[in-house]
Design goal:
two-stranded antiparallel sheet, 8% helix, 42% strand, disordered N terminus, globular, Hypothetical upf0131 protein ytfp, 142 residues, 1 helix, mainly beta
Length: 142
């Protein structure tokens, strides 16, 4: 589990347990994004997320999976076989507009997933407040 405390915008307490707010507006389904690699703070593409109009940094998070070196950047494969990918969690303010650009950066074409380098998928992410569903870009392997 992640070691530092976090606050989520719009958190609610139920039965004494802090629960992050999640919007379930289709087709986006969640406003949270899990990032690893170059999009993390302090790295090459961090400026894309470092914009309070686009996204709010929530904190450190981790997901079940494995990172692979695919050249200029890492790629994640979700896995339940004991691997952990350490990353960061963001809350997106307008996911539909945000993903129009980030899908291009990540090499994901929603209308042609078979030709995409990455696939955008909702995965379970561990946070200090408990598990949360978040979008993540995963390697598109055959």
């Amino acid at each position: 589990m992640v070691g530092s405390s976090m606050l989520f915008t719009g958190d609610t307490k139920r039965n004494g347990i802090l629960r992050p707010r999640q919007k379930n507006a289709s087709p986006i389904e969640t406003n949270f994004l899990f990032v690893y690699g170059l999009l993390m703070r302090g790295l090459e593409r961090a400026d894309f997320l470092n914009n309070p109009d686009k996204a709010s940094f929530i904190g450190k998070a981790e997901a079940a999976g494995v990172l692979y070196d695919v050249g200029a950047f890492p790629g994640m494969i979700a896995s339940q076989n004991g691997g952990v990918v350490y990353g960061e969690l963001y809350e997106l303010h307008d996911p539909e507009i945000f993903f129009e650009t980030l899908d291009l950066i990540e090499g994901y074409w929603p209308d042609q997933p078979e030709r995409s380098l990455s696939i955008r998928k909702i995965i379970s992410v561990a946070t200090t407040s408990g598990p949360i569903n978040a979008w993540a870009y995963l390697l598109n392997l055959p």
